[in-house]
User: What shape does this take?
Amino acid sequence: MTALFALATGLMWGLADFGGGLLTRRMPALTVVVASQCIAAVVLGTVVLATGGWSEAGPRLWFAVAAGAVGPVAMLSFYKALALGPMGVVSPLGSLGVAVPVGVGLLVGERPGLPQFAGVAVAVAGIVLAGGPQLRGAPVQRQAVVLALLAAFGFGAVMALISEASTTVTGLFLALFVQRVTNIAVGGTALYVSVRRGGSALPEEGGIGVVRAALPALAFVGLADVAANGTYALAAQHGPVTVAAVLASTYPVVTALAARGVLGERLRGVQAAGAGLALLGTLLLATG
Assistant: This one.
């Protein structure tokens, strides 16, 4: 079950990143974050009311609050790093966040077997290569590297925190709702500050009409992110965190394949090799 839930996480995160990346080409990144999370919060709030999830409220929800506070900071750092580029350097650095939950798992006493250790090494190498690392050529700004590493730490911290936010399914719905509300509070504050400083919350061309037309896509991004957080929490609860984290972090492969299938982008040789290594690592982890 751990492998199944973790791979579902990678699929959902990969598709959410792909959708979010497309949307940020048409509207400000902060608007994408806030709008998608608002839609997700409405859906989750309805689910919590329907399942009686409020009864699961307790101290563990502070993990969800922390995850909700860290998530927007990590995402915005990642978007800023991508803007500074080059993307072939930033994307693989962002995927290094897997080291956080894996490290937590090892600290709490998890000791994967030899096949799983090999699977971790192979899969992480594949994940990094799937981002298409740029090994030479364009210069890299130090700020881009710092922001990418900050984003990676944030992504990994969210994985570690959300896995501790609940112990039951109904409690997980409540934890995800609290995480979304915190996302909105942090992202909304950042959006407000940005507008006060002269930025825009709406696309320069099309304005509110573009946002309205993109609501289905925004809903998909928000709900895919929710689903990914939920399946990761279940994966971490059903098996070793070291395995769950690495399998869940295969999302760059999904994003690259989605770009190939939908946009017709050709995979570079290093990306194709990375996808193959990630698959091999996945098989080792699933069978180890």
User: Anything to note?
Assistant: The chain has 13 helices and no strands. The CA atoms of residues 14 and 251 lie 4 Å apart.
